[in-house]
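On clarity, I found the account of how folds are encoded harder to follow than it need be. What matters is that the chain and its backbone geometry are given together, residue for residue. I therefore recommend that a typical entry be quoted early in the introduction. An entry of this sort, consisting of the sequence and the corresponding backbone structure tokens, reads as follows:
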Amino acid sequence: MSQQLQVRFGGYSSAGVKAINQDAFTAHMPDGIERDLKGAAAVICDGVSSGEDSQVASQMAATVFITDYFSTPPTWSTRNAASKVLQGLNSWIHRQNAARNARQDSMLTTFSAVIAKSNTLHSFHAGDSRIHHMRGELFEQITRDHTLTEGGREYLARALGADSHLEVDYHTLELQEGDRILLTTDGVHGVLPRANLRELLAGCDEDLEGCAKTIVNAALAAGSDDNLTALIVSVDRLPLETLDETHRRLTQLPIPPVLASGNRIDGFEVLDVIFSGTRSHMYLVKDLDSNERFVLKAPSENFKEDAVYLDGFIREEWVGQRLDHPNVMKTFRPARDKRFLYYLGEHIEGMNLREWMQDNPHPPLDAVRDIVRQAVDGLRAFQRADMVHQDLKPENIMINRDGRVKLLDFGTVLIAGTDEIASPLDKSVPQGSVNYVAPEYLMGEPGSFRSDLFSLAVITYEMITGKLPFDEPAMKRVSIDNYGELDYIPANRVRRELPLWVEGCLRKALQPNPAYRYEAFSEFLQDFTRPNPQLEARIHRQPLLETNPLRFWQVLCLILALLNLWQLARG
């Protein structure tokens, strides 16, 4: 079995010479799969001493962050999950302060947290508490103090609850076994030089709590007049899965044999063979206990040694069980234990979008808009879950008999939360069908919702024109050196009656550089549905070389020919 992340914590806090301790710290490492998906977290907070109830803010920030972070969806990335929790915490504390009027800043606290997930340390920081990283002889501060000096006095520039918007420093570093992380409040690092902190941390034995207490006592002895807290994280073991382990994990269940109508498997009867190919087999099956109908999909024996393919197959089932949206195909947990590798999906009676396009070569724009609107709704469900589909194409979009659009095929879905977990599997190849893949993948860059937007825009363009928006040789490449290699073909050259504002919408959504595309699915949908005069004006302002390059070169050649004739006549 693959080894899991293993860290240890040890912390100690003291009020010091003060009557009240406004510092707080906490740490948590979950068990089982949650440790793989969410990691282990440690938090330290220092309530601002000028605030009357800052100990409430520090204690709440530390405990609520840990509780809420581990309650966020497993699909969310570490940064997204922690940021959402911090935004909520900051808003609550700020509202409490605003309601107190005369004692407006009575609840303020610094915040520093580390999350060790897989082989990466994620840090989140606001204020003047500190995070240090030690590896062998190296001892470095990985946060910066957010302070201002005015009139000889130092003030915090950032703190939870100080403003309606909290700016948090985010940093990552690759971990190694044996690394130690030290979090301290300014009552400790304000009097102990970095060299002393390093020496004390290096001298730690297995008793991390005792070591933290030693650091706090050393700061007290050095004359600290503030609350003091030290929290130590020791990275004892990092998860590392070999390719053999990966393959064993993915092939614990055997691939079922090719089935035919009437065959039974795990309490399901095959009613029909939907598809049987070199990569997978799909069957319409009936649960013999409940009489419910499902689609049963099984991998082909041809891929039993392909760990990347099997990883995608298992990912497809996992995603379909976590997204509950009418425009996304569902997968189901079977009522009985599986003896073979397959998954159950909802049975969708209808046709895929490729078949619809063949039946509707010149569709009215309203019909296209309805399909696009439903596809956008489905893609928003992926975006909310911090996922990117990455393989949108007409074959992966179904339209049922009621006109409901369903997005299929989740084998290459980018899942921010799980894709932060180290894996030996090589997934660096461009994702998706080559005619619909976003150019950033061909540049070796990561995908985002804008990548799905590009693929959807290609499909939209194809529904309207029956053609692809870029020269076919460019679309067949598996890599490009720059975005300028892709030459867009205006849709209204193919479909003359197309409104200019629709052409402008498609042109913006199909920008090769994702930075120039729409910033939200809703913006694309709005511009595709309602006229936007700005898009028309932008096209009118374009030079002839961009709007009609053929006409440009024809005019240029004519001018050059006339100049040559004029020179000959003068000679």
